[in-house]
Structure formats: structure tokens, C-alpha cells
Amino acid sequence: MKEGYPLIIVFYLDADMMKMPEIIQPFAESVNNLLAHKNANALAFFLPTKGEERIECINPLVVAEADMEKINKMVEEIKESFAVGLDIDVADEEIEVDAPEVKSCDCGKDLEGKCKCN
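Request: output the structure for the sequence above.
Response:
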């Protein structure tokens, strides 16, 4: 492939399934690990769809040079916007989580396990 122009693979996956991190995260990691293992000059994007699930590919060998430059520019902007490929070096003790305040009560719960106070 032309140097600097990666193969772009776009996975259009069911939007409801993509809301389930226990499914989508291992899938995305396995695809990305495979690309890394093969030393592929490729990027994978995972987009939700309510329509047909499919995989589309932009191959830099069959795209006009001017179009590939535009595509590559968009990819670089996406990578910068989402910090793709950058390691974030933050110590665990520096991470703060704003957890909602949990209030306990002694009202007892209904048959479904819901608080009767609400």
C-alpha cells in the first residue's frame, strides 16, 4: 500500500449491540489486535447502524491520489480528536470519579427490590 495511506475498514454494527460494552469491546480489541499482529497499515472504525450490518473498506491502491489525501486528512483529524493511538499517562490515584451520593433507608423494599421511599 502507499506509504502513509492506511487501509480503512469500517464496521457498521447493530446500534443496540454497540451499547453493550461486554460485546463490542472484546470484538473491537480482537480486530485491533489482529491488525497490530499482522503489522497491517490499517485502521478500523466501528460505527452503529439501525440498518444492515456490513463492513466497508477504503483501499488506497484503488482511490485517486487527491481523494486519498482528503481521506487521510479526515482520518488524521479523527485520530487527533479522539486521541487514537496515544497512551494516556495518568496515575490511578489522580483519577477522580464523581459518584452519585447513595442514601440508604430502612423502609424495606417491595417485591421487585425497589425502595418504597421513591
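The first helix runs from residue 15 to 18.
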